[in-house]
Design goal:
This protein is of the alpha+beta class. Helix content is 42%, strand content 22%. The protein has 13 helices and 16 strands. The strands form four sheets. It has a five-stranded mixed sheet with strand order 7-6-5-8-9, sandwiched between helices. Strands 3-2-1-4 form a four-stranded antiparallel sheet. A four-stranded mixed sheet has the order 10-16-11-15, with helices on both faces. Strand 5 and strand 6 form a beta hairpin. The longest helix has 30 residues. It is globular, with a radius of gyration of 27 Å. About 2% of the residues have low confidence.
Length: 384
C-alpha cells in the first residue's frame, strides 16, 4: 500500500518520466458486485480505447495490471505507464476509494502529462493520526493514514521492585503496632507512583517526537480512564490540544494492529465528522462561500482553508499564469490576453493549494450535502 511520503515524492518522480504518460485510476474493491470477476479490467479497456490507444498497447498494459494487482484490501489502484509498458510501468495500491474514481464510474484515464492530482487530494481527505494504546508498563503506538495502520516500536518499562521489598514494612518491636511516619507499604506505593510518572514523561517525550515527524498529526488515546488521564496530564499543552478522542481499550490489549484498526477508524470517523461540521459553522460565521465568490477569494490568495465536496465534479476556467475563475466571462475580464481553458476543479486544486498555502478539507456524508445545499458547493475560511 502506498503511504503519505510516497505520494508526496511521486509527483516529482513521474514528472521525470518521458512523455506521453498513461495515468490510470481504477476502483478494484472486491466487495463491490460491479468488480466481480475482475470487471475493472473491462472498464480499463474501454477507457483506454476511448483514449485512442493501440490494441497492442492495451493488451500489454492489462496483462501487467493483472500481474501487479494482488492486494485484496485495496479499493483503488493507480497506474503510471509509458509508451512501452514493459519498460515503464508503476502501480500503487490505495486502501480507500479515491473520490474522482467514484465520480467517474470507477475509472479515470489520462494520456499525456502525468495526472497525480487524485492522489494528492487523497492527502486532504485522509489526515494522519497517531494512536496511543496505554497500559500500565507498556505503550503501543500506531500510525493511521489512508485507512492503513502501522504499528511503531512499543515503549516498555518493566516494573522491577525486587529491591523495594525490604522497605514494605517498618518494625516497631511490638506486634500489631505500626511504625511512626507510616508503613513501608506507603513508601512502596510512592515509589510505584514515581515510577509511573517517569514512565509517562518518557512516553510523552516519545509521542512528541513522533508527532513532530508527522506534522500535522492528530492524537487518539486508547486505554482505561485513569491511564489516559495521567498520561494526558504529562503531555505539553501543544500536544494536549491535538488529542481528538479517548477510546476504551480493546478486549485483548495483545491483539494485532489489524484487529485494533476498526476501533481507531470508528473514532477517526467521529472526529472528522465533528471537525467538518465545526468548519462549516465557522465559515458561516466569518468565511466566504458560494462557488464564484469562494473561487475569487482563492484566486486572490485570501483563503487559508478550503472545504470541497467528496464528489467534486465542478469545472473552472484556467488562465495562463495560473489564475482561476468561475466563468469564461470572468476570464475575458481578468485575463483578456490569455487563452482560457476549462479544466476540472479537482485537477487544479493541488496546485492552487500549494501556491496559496491553502489547506484542503474534503467533506463527506451529511457535511458534504450541507456544503452543496447551503454553501453552493465551495466554501472557505479567509485570511482577511
Amino acid at each position: 500500500m502506498i503511504g503519505t511520503d510516497r505520494i508526496r515524492t511521486l509527483r516529482n518522480e513521474v514528472a521525470r518520466y518521458p512523455l506521453p504518460v498513461l495515468s490510470l485510476y481504477l476502483d478494484v474493491d472486491p466487495s463491490r458486485p460491479e468488480n466481480a470477476r475482475k470487471a475493472y479490467a473491462l472498464r480499463a479497456r474501454a477507457a483506454l480505447r476511448a483514449l485512442g490507444l493501440p490494441k497492442s498497447y492495451i493488451r500489454s498494459l492489462l496483462a501487467r495490471l493483472r500481474l501487479d494487482h494482488g492486494v485484496p484490501e485495496a479499493r483503488t489502484v493507480a497506474v503510471f505507464a509509458g509508451e512501452e509498458p514493459d519498460r515503464l510501468f508503476e502501480s500503487f495500491m490505495v486502501r480507500p476509494l479515491i473520490p474522482q474514481v467514484a465520480a467517474h464510474q470507477g475509472v479515470v484515464a489520462r494520456w499525456g502529462e502525468p495526472y497525480v492530482a487524485p492522489l494528492l487530494l487523497a492527502l486532504g481527505e485522509h489526515p494522519r493520526y497517531l494512536g496511543v494504546l496505554l497500559e500500565l508498563n507498556r505503550v503501543r503506538l500506531f500510525e493511521l493514514f489512508l485507512d492503513e495502520i502501522e504499528e511503531l516500536p512499543a515503549l516498555v518499562q518493566p516494573l522491577d521492585h525486587s529491591q523495594w521489598r525490604p522497605l514494605r514494612e517498618h518494625s516497631t518491636g511490638a506486634p500489631g503496632v505500626p511504625a511512626r511516619g507510616g508503613s513501608g507499604k506507603d513508601l512502596f506505593d510512592k515509589r510505584v507512583a514515581d515510577w509511573r510518572r517517569r514512565f509517562q514523561k518518557d512516553v510523552a517525550l516519545r509521542v512528541a517526537q513522533e508527532v513532530e515527524r508527522r506534522d500535522p498529526c492528530r492524537l487518539l488515546l486508547m486505554g482505561l480512564e485513569p491511564e489516559i488521564h495521567a498520561f494526558e496530564a504529562a503531555l505539553p499543552p501543544t500536544l494536549q490540544a491535538r488529542v481528538r478522542e479517548r477510546i476504551a481499550p480493546p478486549a485483548n490489549p495483545e491483539a494485532a494492529a489489524s484487529a485494533i484498526r476498526p476501533l481507531f477508524l470508528e473514532a477517526m470517523d467521529r472526529v472528522e465528522d465533528e471537525l467538518e461540521r465545526s468548519l462549516l459553522d465557522r465559515i458561516r460565521e466569518r468565511g466566504v462561500w458560494g462557488f464564484g465568490p469562494t473561487l475569487g477569494a482563492v484566486d486572490e490568495g485570501r483563503v487559508h482553508t478550503l472545504a470541497v465536496p467528496w464528489r467534486l465534479d465542478a469545472s473552472v476556467v484556467w488562465c495562463a499564469g495560473g489564475r482561476v475563475v468561475a466563468s469564461v466571462e470572468e476570464a475575458a475580464h481578468l485575463c483578456p490576453d490569455a487563452d482560457p481553458l476549462e479544466r476540472p476543479l479537482a485537477d487544479v486544486l493541488p496546485a492552487l493549494a500549494e501556491h496559496h498555502g491553502m489547506e484542503l478539507v474534503v467533506l463527506h456524508g451529511e457535511n458534504e450535502t450541507r456544503l452543496k445545499q447551503h454553501f453552493d458547493g465551495l466554501a472557505g475560511l479567509a485570511r482577511w
